[in-house]
Batch of 4 targets.
Target 1
Amino acid sequence: MSASGTPLRMRVARIDALTAAIRRLHLVAANGAPLPAFEAGAHIGVHVPLGERTQRRAYSLVNAAASSQDPTFNPDHYEIAVLLEPASSGGSRWMHALRPGDEVDIDAPRNDFPLAPGARRHLLIAGGIGITPILAMARALGAAGETYALHYAARDAISMAYHDEVGALGDATRWFDGGDPRHGMPLAETIGRPEPGAHLYVCGPGGLITATLAAARALGWPDDALHSERFAAAPTAAGGAEAAESAPFEVRLAASDRVLVVPPGTSILDVMIEAGLDPLYDCKRGDCGVCTTQLLEGEADHRDICLTGDDHARGAFCPCVSRAKSARLVLDL
């Protein structure tokens, strides 16, 4: 949201077809005002009307080339790319139905996937639509004169969004597997042994992220040098067997001082939505980290797959899937 806590009203200024299933949208302020600045890795929350409620869908911002160098940088537009997912809840279909001139509400940029400050080298790995924050990172690093390498995987060139833009970068490799991951990016060779000050970032389908992080850890990379953001859901849904076996517990939202009761089989996020709140989220399966908040009190039962053990130790908490071991949690919401 904006500094005043209200959504930003945006107008669709331009739409491009990047692939048969991916559209690029340029959003400008409907009132012509300057837009809030952002850094590579940031996303916006688009307010999407689905059913009786307006829900938020998170989309990474692509046009972040100058923001890491100039703290006063204010973009004249936000660029996002949206993959049409026919099996989803309908958010991507709604986004694909937009036309130039249509207006939407968004929350101001938020960054849960930032570049590591002080890193000496950056290894960027993307798959599919996961190129959006990764391309922003590469552009920002290139503009700042920092060392990086980018590896981008897709089925083939025709389904690769930003194919030409990635090819124009100084140190980028495009990998095509023809639909068989065994013929794609050689992860161990691509990642290599850890080096002092090196950080790895990966975004894309869950399978790529899981394989990349596993390969990096097997090569000796420490968790605090590994960063990920997911754009695909894990195969198990939130609120499954584990959630159904959980006991009810209370959650106090510190900012509003509201107390909610979370029953078995229902997530904290869904209880907040039912209570008329409007939390930011995307996957609802603990994959993406968009809903991450801070645990202030209580003992958590962490069930996400996007946060590291160090993140959990620092209090990071995903209310879309994680629950309580204690009778009460206090969240910074």
Note: Confidence is low (pLDDT under 50) at residues 232-246.
Target 2
Amino acid sequence: MKLYISVDMEGITGLADYTHVDSFKHNYERSRKIMTEEANHVISAAFDLGCAEVVVNDSHSKMNNLLIENLHPEAQVIVGDVKPFSMVQALDSSFVGAIFVGYHARASMKGAMSHSMIFGVRNMYINDVAIGEMGLNAYVAGYHGVPVLMVAGDDRAALEAEQLIPNVTTAIVKETITRSAVKSLTPAKAGELLREKTAEALKNRDLVKPLTPPDNPLLRIEFANYGQAEWAALMPGTEIEENTTIVRYQAKDILEAYKAMLVMVELAMRTSFC
């Protein structure tokens, strides 16, 4: 049994604001340790439940946050930037399931540090359905026939997961007060919860179906300002919807839509004055 784990940072226990997740800020090094410990709880539970192989993808920012020297010795780790499939790099049909750890709510929604890839995105849509990082990643997993078995993060990430994926297991390690304040479990208590929920998710894996993506999906990204939309629309095949900051791209499949999203948001970040 082979398990895939994608680990983001904003949904990790006790992390409340940008000082915890920005590598230039004072709380970041503490946060890396908590993030690594959190991943280890899920990895250990997976091995205890009979997984023969666990692949962990560092999925936050430059994707070099996990302290590999402190990670479970039997885990395999994907680390660094640039990855063609970012938060779900190397996820394929060989995995029995995927677990998302440290995840957060999508842009424009309530939730600790809620966003979708970059803070310049207001909304993302696949065929006019609003979706965030979690949904796009789950669609890529579904393309390969892999179900998302568990999502760990704040209460709003859990709600988003439950609305998106029937029978998914959720592990709520903190509750949202505002976008930059939370009521959190301690790392020790969160560890107990994560081990318990990972075991539950693996035992109930047959109840969760892969999130099947639509054929020929239309990707639409709404940016915060027109300059970001102009940069994103430099990618061939895109166009700005008139009188909006929405850039659209007609993809042949969800894999192409995912890569298009990555290119569009990277271009949008070049906007220097907002």
Note: The first helix runs from residue 18 to 21.
Target 3
Amino acid sequence: MNETMVCAVGNVATQPVYRETASGPSARFRLAVTSRYWDREKGTWTDGHTNFFTVWANRQLAANAAASLSVGEPVVVQGRLKVRTEPREGQQGRMSADIDAVAIGHDLARGTSAFRRTGRPEQTAPPDRSGPHWETRPGETPAETGSARQRGPEAAMLT
């Protein structure tokens, strides 16, 4: 459980790519995170270095991200950071940083968003395990209900 959890605030840099895989839906996009700092000499905010992350989303988060995100939109991404180095011939290995997303949302400090709940995937209905109907009818006392139910449903209708 020694995972590095991060929260990155930035802009969607590439259109999300959605794929159906054998293990379920998956989506990925690039996230640009630019630091900003106050430049005392100029008296203005200045952009610093930009870091790029590949954000991976799975299952329902993948479908929702693909349907909701567009290039340039400000987002907040929370997830597990994974840094890896890919060896190259005759060169120093290329490093990349991925975020395995747990949550993705629009950055409401920089705009508004309209939330729409998605339907859950179709599931088979559970078997009917409802017990007897224990409510009393208007004008009935609990004692009358119990005795009528002991005689069967036809007797309950007649009383």
Note: The first strand starts at residue 5 and ends at 12.
Target 4
Amino acid sequence: MTMGRRGWAWLALAALLCIAFLRFCVRFVPADAPVATAPAPGSRAVDNGELLIPVEGVPASALADTFTQSRAAGARAHDAIDIIAARGRPVLAAADGRIEKLFWSEEGGRTIYQRSADGRRVYYYAHLDGYAPGLREGQGVRRGTRIASVGSTGNADPAAPHLHFAVHAMQPGEPWYRGSPVNPYPLLARAR
């Protein structure tokens, strides 16, 4: 069986279309490449300071500086702020960076540790109700990207869902669970 001129022409056209499709429509990405996602369309992020307020729709006027309050009957300092919000309210990345660790702990419940793009800070989000679909360790995130939802997991009062948000200054090579506490309140509410 031989192929005539029309057969060869159709075969050549099909090959060209396949090459054009692969060139302009398909992007090959290594499996371990970071995934940067954009903020959700229509999200209402509030940006009043150096960092984005990490709960959608919460204004700076609703924040309270609870950084130095004692916890566990005075056994430790809070070293974070609590952002009160309805269960399920979107939690947003406070800055560009990478998801360092998704972790469950007795105190924090469902948590996220996010390292800043420059590696100098780790942002800690705790008491989460759930992670955003597809969120994974190593994933790159942009400021304002939905990463989770507000909840009351861990030792949080189930009747008072909130985001426990902490910032840690990191030294080069320091692991996600270390760092020195930094008060997030002025970083979130600077323009208040």
Note: Residues 5-25 form the longest helix (21 residues).
